[in-house]
Amino acid sequence: MPPAPSAEIVLDPSQADWRSFLRARRVLLLWLGVALALMMALISWELRSSYLDTRHSAQLAAQNLSLLLREQLDGALRETDLVLRDLAGKVDPATLAKLRVLPVAERAALSQLLDEKLSTLPQVDNLAFVAPDGYGVLTHERLLPIDTHLQPFYSQLLDNGGLEMSFSKPFVLPGGNELGMIMARRIPGLDQPLGGVVTALVKLEYFNQLARRLDAQAGSSFTLYDANNTVVSRYPELKHIMGKTDSANAALTAWTNGRSSGYVVARSTDDGVERGYSFHRLDHFPFIVMVGLEEGRRFGDWRMKAAAYVCLFLLLIGFSLLMVWRGWRESLLALSLQANRQKLEQHDAHILRALETLSRPILLMRASDSRILVANAAAAALCGRSQAELSTLSLPELYLRPEHHQTVAAQLAEKHSLSDYEIKFQRPDGSVFWAELSGSAIAYAGDNAYFLTLGDISARKQAQESLWRRATLDPLTSIANRGYLLERAQIEWLRAKRYRHPLAVLILDLDHFKLVNDNYGHPVGDEVLQAVTQRVQQTLRETDLFGRLGGEEFCVLLPEEGEHGMLENAERLRQVVAATPIVLRDGRSLPITVSIGCACSRPDTADLSQLLKQADQALYAAKHAGRNCVMAFSPSLDTLQG
Fold first, then answer.
1. Which CA distances in Å does 539 have to 208, 466, 532, 536, 575?
2. How far apart are CA 87 and CA 78, in angstroms?
3. Helix, strand or coil for residue 330?
4. Measured between alpha carbons, how far is 327 from 329 in angstroms, rounded to an integer?
5. Quick check: 134 and 196 in contact, CB under 8 A?
6. Per-residue pLDDT for 435 more than 50?
7. What is the pLDDT of residues 366-397, one digit of tens each?
8. Which positions ≥6 away from 211 have C-beta within 8 Å?
9. 3-state SS assignment for residue 422
10. How far does CA 134 lie from the centroid of its chain?
């Protein structure tokens, strides 16, 4: 308790002895200083926490976007490479050796093969075979002399026997301003190092399309680099840096060297904008995708919040000084309360002030019965109740499942603290949200209590689920995408092999789908793909796996299904698709049929790749048998297709 005021302290400030006043009020002034210091520490902690949260959010957003862009681009390039591998395996090097003098019928067959594969690759502008002597190029349209962009690939693949694939630098596509690059794969020769080359002309506009679909904030940048840190593509486009080495190449090389991913905040030398950059290397190709999110837009709200807190703290200091001055004028007498009670009241008042000052939702809970003693306005808003109503409830009454409080109470009793415990809360209107619960022990009103903070993490949970859907589902049809389909198919293959169960694969291809796109446009083609997907899904069992391989080609996996059941399922799917025309949104009807190739695992089936190849061979036979039919694989198809 502060000492009693001396006789020399008077109420007239002009005659007051400041030293006596300070001695009389030293406890109060000390508490005021501690309170201001603690308030400053709390504000600093809150600003630092919110800054770290914003920084983490910005980093997570950039990393998620770059990861998603990497997965989509890697999938597109893998899809292109699979087609190139397939084409390389289907052409005879001896045929390519006499490409320029090849009979018209054989040349037309090769062109048709290229045309069929090209229709499955929206990211590719052209597919071509290159003769082993490097002086003839056959596209899906005609035979051409070798292009200047192909000659370096031919020389490179010829001179490097171990090189299977090569990429060009970006160049302007003929007949327009679009950029593209060539992806070339070696065709082994019979008695010479090189039997030919199969190439794909990849449109870099496809990278821009992927970037636009990510719907990032304004001011973002998406850049694709090759292994030498040469700019392959950038969205939004900056024409002057395309195909050139980045001006900060040394720093970029040092940052990305030996790493598969990373995050850094830097100012761009191209447009002067400060961004948070995240990069990811492609798993199977020599490229790096980099996503930059503008810092100013991310931290604008935090700067306003920091300015508001600083102004509030300055006003609090000014108000405190005003109160000290007023107290010096109005009273120089010591407080009459006992020291212990004074400290307790100041402690409780400080806690309440902290509760109302902090913007984060906070609850003060009694330790003995988990009863909520005090809740700030932010906690009331988050829980959908008034502060007064919260003070009448216990903490378990806020949970979606009150029985989970046993775990919370046990951890608080054992460690006297709780850190980032994720649990679902329920509001009075029935809505549910995810909360991150943290707490520590504190004394309040002469009793043991817990200082609990709530963080709404519903958006993060939804973002995690959304990211999973983007990584595993086809964006057009909402069924399994190629990567996820093949991953699940491999798991089913291993399970079937382990338990010696049969496994059947159906590959479905829409007949004459290119004509649909050509005659009605790609939006109608998308409607057709979605309608066919719905019909197939309604026909399949819950245990069947359905996914899109690319373009108009789909795959159905039938676990524990033998050859008889496989053919029955395939015929039923064919009939369901062909039964009734597809009614478009504009009211038009469009008849659609499907060709289906089937393959069932046998004791001599080596792996999943062989099973898929057999189904693809059966599909090829169904196409040549007139379409709108089902063909099952038989060993004779190997001879027929070869």
1. 37, 27, 11, 5, 11
2. 14
3. helix
4. 5
5. no
6. yes
7. 888 888 888 888 888 888 888 888 888 888 88
8. 69, 222, 235
9. strand
10. 42
Report the predicted TM-score, pTM, of the whole model to 2 decimal places: 0.45
Is the pLDDT at 87 greater than 80? The verdict is: yes
Query: Which residues lie across from 452 on neighbouring strands?
Result: 363, 439
Report the Cα–Cα distance between both ends of the chain, in Å, rounded. 101
Q: Could you tell me whether strands 432-444 and 417-426 are parallel, antiparallel, or unpaired per DSSP bridges?
A: antiparallel
Per the listing, tokens 């990811």 go with 280
What are the pLDDT digits (tens) for 522-542?
999 999 999 999 999 999 998
Q: Which of the 8 DSSP states describes residue 402?
A: G
Residues of the chain with pLDDT > 90, as a percent, come to 24
Helix residue ranges per DSSP H, 392-521 = 405-415, 458-472, 482-499, 513-520
Closest CA to 78 of 218, 185, 194, 205: 185
Query: What residue has token string 């049969």?
Result: 502
The answer to whether the CB of 108 falls within 8 A of the CB of 64 is: no
Rounded to the nearest angstrom, the gap between the alpha carbon of residue 413 and the centroid of all alpha carbons in its chain is 39
H/E segment holding residue 186? strand 179-187
Which strand (E) or helix (H) includes residue 41? helix 26-90
Whose structure tokens read 């837009």?
297
CA–CA gap between residue 213 and residue 208 (Å, rounded) = 9
Question: Hey, which residues does 599 pair with through a beta bridge?
Answer: 505
Q: pLDDT tier at 247 (50, 70, 90 boundaries)?
A: low
Per-residue pLDDT of 108-135, as tens digits, reads: 888 888 888 888 888 888 888 888 877 7
So what's the pLDDT on residue 16? 44
Read off the pLDDT band of 470 (50, 70, 90). confident
Cα dist from 12 to 16, 193, 327, 328, 477, whole Å: 6, 106, 12, 9, 83
Contact yes or no for 117/89 (Cβ under 8 A):
no
CB 546 within 8 A of CB 576: no
| Cα radius of gyration rounded to whole Å, the chain | 35
Q: How far is residue 293's CA from residue 222's CA, in Å, rounded to a whole number?
A: 9
Strands 545-550 and 143-144: unpaired
Query: Is residue 237 within 8 Å of 251, Cβ to Cβ?
Result: no
Question: Amino acid identity, residue 482?
Answer: R
CA gap 613, 633 in Å, rounded: 10
**Nearest partner of 142 among 176, 114, 117, judged by Cα:** 114
> Cα–chain-centroid distance for residue 131?
42
102 within 8 A of 178, measured Cβ to Cβ? no
Q: Would you tell me the crossing angle of helices 26-90 and 458-472 to the nearest 10 degrees?
A: 10
Q: Kindly give, in sequence order, each residue whose CB lies less than 8 Å from that of residue 545, ignoring residues fewer than 6 positions away.
A: 480, 485, 488, 489, 492, 556, 557, 559
Mean per-residue pLDDT of the chain = 82
User: What is residue 73's three-state secondary structure?
Assistant: helix
* Residue 334 pLDDT level (bands cut at 50, 70, 90): very low
Give the model confidence (pLDDT) of 249-272 as tens digits.
Answer: 667 777 778 788 888 888 887 777
Query: Beta-carbon neighbour count of residue 52 at 10 Å?
Result: 10
Distance CA 96, CA 132 (A): 7
What pLDDT does residue 189 have? 78
Backbone angles phi, psi at 332, to 5 degrees: -115, 15
